[in-house]
Amino acid sequence: MSLDRLQNCFAHCAAEGRAALVGYMTAGDPNPAASEKLLHVLAGHADIVEIGMPFSDPMADGPTIQAASERALAAGATMRDVFRLCISVRKARPEAGIVLMGYANVAYAMGYDVFAEQTALAGADGVLIVDIPPEEATEFDAALIAHALHPIRLVAPTSSAERRALAAKTASGFIYYVSLTGITGAQMGAVQDIRAQVESLREQSGLPICVGFGIKTPEQANAVADFADGVVIGSHFVSCVADHAGDESAMLTRLDETCAAMQAAMHKGDAA
Prior knowledge:
Layout: H1 5-15, E1 20-26, H2 32-43, E2 48-52, H3 63-74, H4 79-92, E3 97-102, H5 104-110, H6 112-121, E4 126-129, H7 138-146, E5 150-151, E6 153-155, H8 161-170, E7 175-178, H9 191-202, E8 209-212, H10 218-225, E9 230-233, H11 235-243, H12 248-264
Parallel strand pairs: 1-2, 1-9, 2-3, 3-4, 4-5, 6-7, 7-8, 8-9
Helix pairs in contact: 2-4, 2-12, 5-6, 6-7, 11-12
């Protein structure tokens, strides 16, 4: 694993005049075997792959990703599957960024050091834990850094000035700016407001800034790509699974088409 891999992703995208496509899928959804195929489709388009760790109480997520976690857990998906899927994506895309995303209970149950060790061995570059705020992340960050993993931070529109400053100081890899006040899959906030927040964050951190939550159309993605370093698409991709439940071929085809449309929207300078 190289700490420079995420940096290289953003540098490569910037050189091509585009934002990075950061794509999320829940590991094990709708079952571990199909999930591997879906993740490979996603990895064929995304610069950075976010692999969601299924959890029984995904409180920051909307109905689409909540349902994905439920399907994965019902199919018997475990952290062993998460790591196996991460290894599979890493073998297929040596140059891609890979981030594990999820909730503190998952890592806590394993033990932070064991979790970080297994995450690094699986080939991931960083970890984003939704419910560990920067004020309480010292122990978890230490475990990640000991295994050369990036601790990635969320910043929301409601984050206080103190929390934004601490997130900017302690983050690594990139900062994930949440484009709305609410859960994943809700409607994206006003583009002008998001741009202003991203510009403010740039004054506090030299890290790349990715914007996510609520981006559902190529037009929205293109508008955000014009000023963000990366655009995160989650629920929109995950919905391909539920929309074609029971038809794996259609599921894979639809995800491929959806990813391709978002990938094409990453070029800067095209926003209206």
